[in-house]
Amino acid sequence: MPTRVHEFAWPDRVVVGTIGLPGARTFYLQVRAGKQIVSIALEKQQSALLAEKIDEILDQLITVEGNPFSIPTSTPIELVDNDQLEAVQEQFRTGAMSLGWDPTTAQVVLEAYPLTDVDVDADDNELSLDEDGANESEMLLVRMPVGTARAFAKRTREVVGAGRPICPLCGNPIDADGHICTLPEV
Questions:
Q1: 159, 47 contact by CB (below 8 A)
Q2: Which of 15, 64, 174, 177 has the largest count of CB atoms under 10 Å?
Q3: pLDDT digit of tens for each residue in the chain (186 aa)?
Q4: DSSP H or E segment with residue 30
C-alpha cells in the first residue's frame, strides 16, 4: 500500500495548539499552506520534546564554524502566532516522529507517522512497535524555515506550559476540583 504523504515545503502556518480544558486537552500539530490544512493529534510529551529538539538543532547550527545560515537566537516578532487552531479534522494520531536539517534549503524537516498497532509482551511488559512500518499508510512531512521553526518551538513550549498548575508539595498537576495535597482535612 503506497504511503499518502501530506507534504508542506514552505507552510503558511505550522503550530501546536490544544482543544479542551487543562487536564483534558488534546494537542494538535496543525499545518497550513493556502487552503490545505492538516491536523494531527500529539501527546503533550511529544509536543514538549518536539520543541526542545527543534531548539537544539537550531542552537547547534549557530555554533557550527563557518555556518552560512542566519539562524535566529530568538523568535522573530513578525513570526509570532498566538491565534487559535483553525477548524480541526484529525488526520491521524502521531506515533513516531523524526527531525532533521536540510542544508540545501536551510529548513528543519519534521516527519510524523501515525500510531501503529502496539504489541505488549506480557512477560516483561515491554512495548514493541511494528518494525517494518507496514501499517504506515500516511505521513506528514513539514519543512520549516529557521525563523518559523524557532517561532514554532517557542509557541509549543508556551502551549505545553499553559496546563494545570503544579503542586509545590508533590510536583503533580492540580486539578480544578482539588488535589490530594491541598484538600482540606476532614
A1: yes
A2: 15
A3: 688 999 999 999 999 999 998 888 999 999 999 999 999 999 999 999 999 999 999 999 888 877 777 887 788 788 888 889 999 999 999 999 999 999 999 999 999 999 987 533 444 454 444 444 444 489 999 999 999 999 999 999 999 988 777 788 887 777 777 777 755 555
A4: strand 26-33
Closest CA to 42 of 128, 156, 147: 156
**Beta-strand relationship, 138-145 and 4-8:** parallel
Q: Bridge-partner residues for 102, per DSSP?
A: 107
Which residues are 94's β-sheet partners?
114
Q: Which of 178, 118, 109, 181 is nearest to 145 (CA)?
A: 109
Contacts 24+ apart (CB under 8 A), 54-63: 54/99, 54/108, 54/149, 54/150, 54/152, 54/153, 55/150, 55/153, 57/99, 57/101, 57/108, 57/149, 58/108, 58/146, 58/149, 58/150, 58/153, 61/101, 61/146
Cell triple for 143? 519543512
